[in-house]
Amino acid sequence: MRPGDLGVDAMHINLHKTFSTPHGGGGPGAGPVVLSDRLAPFAPVPFVRFAGDGTAEFVETRKQAAGSATPFGRITAFHGQMGMFVRALAYMLSHGADGLRQASEDAVLNANYLKARLRDVMSLSFPDRPAMHEVLFDDRFLEGTGVSTLDFAKAMIDEGYHPMTMYFPLVVHGAMLIEPTESESRAELDRFVDTLRDLVTRAKGGEAESFRAAPARAPRRRLDETRAARQPVLTYRPPDEETDRAAAAE
């Protein structure tokens, strides 16, 4: 089904993850913004317009957009994260249509595998619905342990895993959104599951203090996020070449 058939007037088709481009942790999201027939006449220039025969036209100025189109302005950064588009295109061409379908099916399969293997120890937000490429847990399984979603995620760092997406979506309390992607083997998924099951056992076994001290084996300890937000350090130290040379020599 096309998004327009659902009544959608505008959609950002983000290429992140689905087509190998990074997202999160500072990685740029990128992708085209598409409009319905109702909004298309007001699209800012430049934009790409498709004719009935499927041919595309690059409309760069308001004059070129003549006719029924009345663009409301101009986008100065039209090309966006060009490197991400090149990477996504290379990914699509290297895999082909059958490869992209396989990657999507494997991502969905992996997410549902995690759901099946963890549902007896972690609380599922939507237990009766199949997962797509992500499986969503919440913090109900941690009730009474003194361990929060943040504590649980930080403890994962000590086990060698980057934490999952936390507290999103906002409609789920203490959300833990896990996305295994299509590239993980079953052996790696099983190792991940065993790690989470062990963390759940520890949390329910009264080890809340060790969770609140995590990560303990990472190069950086946990920040006081509340204090950092309320008392940000915004001072600027002018470059000191002599001090910088001395530090480099050490």
How would you describe this protein?
- Residues 238-250 have a biased composition (Basic and acidic residues).
- This is glycine dehydrogenase (aminomethyl-transferring).
- By secondary structure, the protein is an alpha+beta fold.
- It has two domains: 1-79, no CATH class; 104-230, Aspartate Aminotransferase, domain 1 (Alpha-Beta Complex), CATH 3.90.1150.10.
- Helix content is 34%, strand content 10%.
- The strands form three sheets. It has a four-stranded antiparallel sheet. A two-stranded antiparallel sheet has the order 1-2. It has a two-stranded antiparallel ribbon with strand order 3-4.
- A hairpin with a 5-residue loop joins β3 (47-50) and β4 (56-59).
- The radius of gyration is 24 Å and the shape is globular.
- The relative contact order is 0.09.
- The model has no long low-confidence stretch (mean pLDDT 88).
Q: How would you summarize the topology of this molecule?
A:
Layout: E1 10-12, E2 33-35, E3 47-50, E4 56-59, H1 82-118, E5 123-124, E6 135-138, H2 149-158, E7 165-166, E8 176-178, H3 186-204, H4 208-212, H5 225-230, H6 241-249
Antiparallel strand pairs: 1-2, 3-4, 5-6, 6-8, 7-8
Keywords: Oxidoreductase, Pyridoxal phosphate
Protein name: glycine dehydrogenase (aminomethyl-transferring)
Domain Glycine dehydrogenase C-terminal: 103-200
